[in-house]
Fold this protein.
Amino acid sequence: MRKYIVKRILQSIVILFFVAFIIYVLMRCLPTSFIEATARQKSMQPGSKSYEEWMQQLTQMYNMDGGIIVGFFRWLGSMFRGEFGDSWRWTVPVVQKFNDTVWLSFVMGAVSFFFELIIAIPLGIIAATKQYSKTDYVISVVALAGISLPTFFFASLLKLVFSVKLGWFELYGLVGRDYNNLTALGQFFDKAHHLVLPIITLVVVSMGGLMRYTRTNMLEVLNADYIRTARAKGLSEHKVIYKHAFRNTLVPIVTIVGGSLPGLFSGALITETLYSIPGIGFTSYQSMVSGDIPFFMFYMVFLAILTLLGNLISDILYAVVDPRVRIS
């Protein structure tokens, strides 16, 4: 196990290097540029220098005067020293801005993922055990609706019904008008109230895929020979399903759970934008469209590390869940 983990970590370092290089190249090739926008804005001020002079000065200031290869290795060297620089878009250190926004997205992602698991997996099992029944058809329709519904459409529908028509929730924002006058407990519930609709949106649009995945794998297991043998021995249907069949269904589900680690930190870009939630998804989008290379590079490399870590966790959990799987 130790050799396997060390080998995978070394492979992940090599993969991470090339992923970081590709991300850096794409960022340098973006059609928009923070430096160009800043130079254009400053050159329009009365008595200011020309656009070309500002471009030269800002390019040297932000260490963008070298080529892509030189710039990448400069950034890589700074990263190894723990220096991620200042965000051009937000004018604060990259790590500070990341820390200010990522935990809100993490809370939203973790809560929605929890509800996704406790809703989608049981419904998938019920649909599989009652195949071709009315219950199966209803659950399948709900799952397909969740998969097919665009996030922006469902979020707009929720806001129309619960914010505009019923007035139960605010249309936008994370806090209410009287947030500063509330107690600490009141501020907590005020934020929680504003996060209800975003979390419902994330749960509904995400659980359909897991529901169908659970149903498909459960059907495959229920048709196996050892399940028929267990039933022939006179075991109760509850024990057959939840002790024998469900344990083997867990093996592919573990892959999804392990691979979902990056999603808890990546933020929900569309959902956060529609509800004006200042999470990491919305922040990273604003950084990308403004050409904020330091922040977006840090964010994307962070997600790449989490993705590689999630894959490693999934492989290890395979051996934990399924005794037939051994790492050699």
Summary: The chain has 15 helices and no strands. The chain has a mean pLDDT of 84. The chain has two domains: 2-80, 103-321.
